[in-house]
Amino acid sequence: MNWENFLSMGGYAFYVWTAYGLMVVVLVLNFVLPLRRKAALLKSLARRLERDRGQT
């Protein structure tokens, strides 16, 4: 077995590598988006806490 045959995936390379690429994109998004949402939520809560402390 050589690398050229492996990378060509028996003639299905476009389908296989596209599927792998989409899988990686989805996994990265499933990791990054919740972290960004958490950071935004914490900022929002911190602003609300500061606003509420200033009113009392």
UniProtKB/TrEMBL annotation:
From which domain of life does this come?
Bacteria
State what this protein does: Required for the export of heme to the periplasm for the biogenesis of c-type cytochromes.
Q: Which UniProt keywords apply?
A: Cell inner membrane, Cell membrane, Cytochrome c-type biogenesis, Membrane, Transmembrane, Transmembrane helix, Transport
The organism encoding this protein is: Candidatus Methylocalor cossyra
One Pfam match: CcmD
Protein's cellular compartments:
Cell inner membrane
Membrane protein topology class: Single-pass membrane protein
- Which protein family is named in the record? Belongs to the CcmD/CycX/HelD family.
Q: Which InterPro entries does this entry report, sorted A to Z? A: Haem_export_protD_CcmD, Heme_exporter_D
TM region(s), chain numbering: 12-33
- According to UniProt, the name of this protein is Heme exporter protein D
